[in-house]
Design goal:
Blueprint (H helix, E strand, L loop, with lengths): L4 E4 L1 H18 L2 H16 L14 H5 L3 E5 L2 E8 L4 E9 L4 H12 L2
Parallel strand pairs: 1-4
Antiparallel strand pairs: 2-3, 3-4
Helix pairs in contact: 1-2
């Protein structure tokens, strides 16, 4: 069975920090915040086996780049598979409560500059 390495973009790392700080501000409980973050990390790590089983996103620009999404609780993990390097690259980790479409469009316009 092929195993892929997991790589996190700078944006994904910042997203995880945002999630941690959000739960810290709501609960003031670092243990609870760490449980949420560890749950997300575990979901990302699971992508190392069969990463192509999750659907491509519906936005044409990201879909053309092979961006897939995985739902874990209230979070969407956006990623692509680099077959040449045998890596799964985590692009973004966004709450389903956020306006995901506008954030994605913002990121795409950043890449097109």
């Amino acid at each position: 069975m092929k195993k892929y390495d997991i790589f996190y973009s700078d944006e994904a790392i910042n997203d995880l920090r945002t999630v941690f700080h959000y739960y810290m501000s709501k609960s003031s409980n670092a243990d609870f915040s760490n449980i949420i973050i560890n749950h997300i990390y575990k979901a990302c790590d699971e992508l190392s086996f069969f990463p192509n089983k999750h659907p491509l996103v519906s936005w044409p620009i990201w879909s053309a780049r092979g961006i897939r999404k995985k739902l874990i609780n209230n979070y969407l993990i956006f990623y692509y598979v680099d077959e040449l390097r045998q890596q799964v690259v985590i692009n973004r980790i966004l709450s389903t409560r956020q306006h995901v479409t506008s954030m994605v469009c913002e990121q795409v316009s950043h890449y097109n500059k």
